[in-house]
Amino acid sequence: MDQNVDSNQTSQDLELVIITGMSGAGKTVAVQSFEDMGYFCVDNLPPALIPKFIDLVEGSGGKMQKVALVIDLRGREFFDQLFGAIDTIGRESKVVPQILFLDSKDNVLVRRYKETRRSHPLAGGGPPLEGIQIERNLLDDLKGQAQMIVDTSDLKPVHLRERIIQRFSSDKQVFNVQILSFGYKHGIPIDADLVFDVRFLPNPHYIDHLRPKTGLDKQVSDYVLKWSETQQFIEKLNDLLEYMLPHYKREGKSQLVVAIGCTGGKHRSVTLAEFFKSKLAEDGYYTYVTHRDTEKGKLEG
C-alpha cells in the first residue's frame, strides 16, 4: 500500500527528495531508481550538512536540478538534526523537500535480515526485532511528515521501482535502448544484452570507393540497405524487438544494450545501428547509438 499524504509540488527549480524509512525496506532499490531517473544521489549524508549541500547545488549553475538524499539511522547521533535541517533549507533556500518513507511489516523485515545474515544497525548484536522496534519508534514523527509512504512488505523490487517512477519521474519513461555497433575482429562487447551478427550481409569493404567510408556515409548506408536480405533481416529483428522491449521494460530493466556486429565494425553494423536507433526512437523509446570500432584503422566492414 502506498499513501500520498500531500501531492502539492514545489515551484522551485530544484527537486529535492529525502529517501528514508525502515532498514531493510528497500532504500537501495529506491536510490538506484532515482539514479536511473537522472537524480544526483547521496547516501547517508549527515542531516546537519544538508543546508550546506543545498547551497552547493544551487551554486552549480543548474548542473544539478534533481537531488535525492538517503537519510537513515545509521548516523543515529545526527538524525535528530533532520527536522532542523529541513526547516533551514525551507526558510533560506525556499526548497521544499519531498519525503519518501519506505516501510514494511516487522515479520517481513526480520525475514529479510535472516536471509541476508545481516544484523540490524540498532539491535546491538541482539535479535533483529529489537532493533526494528527501536527504529520504528525513532522514525514515527518523520513518517508522519512524509509525502509518500510505501509499504514494501508484498512488493518485489521491480514493483517498488514502478511506484517510485510513477510518482517522481517527470516523463515516466526511464527505459532506454543503447544500440552498439562493433567488429567481431575486435571482440564482442562484454556489456551487451542482445548480440546480432550481420556478417552474412553484402560487404561494402569489397567496393573500392566505399571501403574508406563508414556506415554513417549515405553511399555506404544505401548500399547495405538496398539488398533484399538486409530488408528481411530488418523486418525480422524489428518484430523481435517489438515483442521483447515491452517485456524488458515491464520487468524494471532501465537500459537494454543491443549490439550489432560485422567483421570490422565499420560498414554494415554501423548502418543497421543507425537504422534501428531511428526506428526505435519513432516507436517512443529513448535510444542512443555508439559506434565502437569505426576509428580503428583500416577495418573490414
Note the main attributes of this structure.
301 residues; alpha/beta; six-stranded mixed sheet; 10 helices
Which percent range fits the helix content?
25-40%
Class by SSE composition: alpha/beta
SSE ordering: EEHEHEHHEHHEHEEHHEHE
Main sheet summary: 6 strands, mixed
| Tally of helical segments | 10
User: Rg from C-alpha positions?
Assistant: 25 Å
What percentage of the residues does DSSP assign to strands (E)? 15-25%
Mean pLDDT comes to 84
Question: How are strands sequenced across the largest beta sheet?
Answer: 1-6-5-2-4-3
Which spans of ≥5 residues are poorly predicted at pLDDT below 50?
4-11
Instruction: Tell me the number of strands.
Output: 10
Shape: elongated
Q: What's the end-to-end separation, in Å?
A: 54 Å
